[in-house]
Every structure is written in structure tokens, then in C-alpha cells.
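re: ur question from yesterday

yeah so i grabbed the chain u mentioned. its 182 aa long if i counted rite. heres the sequnce exactly as i have it in my notes:
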Amino acid sequence: MSLGIAKDTPESLVTLLRTGSAADILVTIGGASVGERDLVGAALRSEGLALDFWKIAMRPGKPLLYGRLGNQRVLGVPGNPVAALICGLVFLVPMLHRLLGLREDTPGHVEATLGKTVEANGPRQHYMRATSQWEGGERRVTALPAQDSSLMADFARADCLIVRAPDAPALPKGARVTIIPL
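ran it thru and got these C-alpha cells back, copy pasting raw so excuse formatting
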């Protein structure tokens, strides 16, 4: 069920949190970072959130939060649309699979071959938007040149995500990588 869009006030957020209190999982989008209008964490804490984690070493998606309000699981994904979609794929889909008792609890991670070199990665796990094509029976993937998480058009062009571990070295064309097909 959709609870709607909260106003940027603690009272509006608390009202919607209480409206959704019977759900098994509560997913919030936006407002979980540290800006002046990021009120979700405080509203959740005022309702008794037992926070398991907040802010993760992931790009995009750093301001993700997870905790529980009683028996309810709470997942707060970033408000940036690309980050929200990737966090939903990486965290929400496996959670739903587990709760439903499905065997596969992670998105289909597969291997592919790089079509172009990728630079060394920074300190956060990076989910790089990429395109792929089949050549000679193998999947070749090429990271899109712009990885800024505000670029929805580039996300729409992507058909997979290249998963780069924190501090991973640069990889040459032809290297094997893990991807998540979209």
C-alpha cells in the first residue's frame, strides 16, 4: 500500500509512519541523509526505531537506513531516483525474497567480460550503470561514461550494473566482472 508523500514536517512523517504501522515492511524514499530537510530518521526514532545501520559504503546509495519498529522492518532508501532504484534492487528485493521463502535471495549476479577498461574504485562498493551485448557466446559489458547518480537518462540506457568492490584496482578490457542484469 502506498502511504503517499509526507510534507517536510515531523508531524506529517509521524502520521504516515503510524498509518503504515501494520505493514510487514515500511519503505521510505528520501529524507534519510543529513540535510536540513532530512527528517525521516528523527521521525522514525521518535516512534521507537531500533536502528541496525545508517549510511553504508555504497555508491550510489550511501544514506540508506535499516531498522525495526517492533516487528516491522524499515528500509529507508535515498531520495535520489537512481540511488533509490539501485538500493531497492540490492536490499529490498533480497529482503522480499527471504520473507517469501524464495530460494534466490539476491538479484541474479552473473559474470561478464569488460568491453572497456574501468578505473580503480574508491572506498565504497560501486554499482556502475552499464550496457551489454553478446559476442561469441559471452556477455561483454561497458560502463556508461557518466556515473553521476542524478543522471536518470543514463540509468534508463543501462541494462546491467557492474559491481565493483571497495578499493578495487583498475581493470583492463577483457577482465571478468560481476554484474547484476537489469
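noticed a couple things. The helical segments are 10-19, 40-46, 81-99, 152-157. also The beta strands are 25-29, 50-54, 58-59, 65-69, 72-77, 110-114, 125-135, 138-143, 160-164, 176-181.
anyway ttyl
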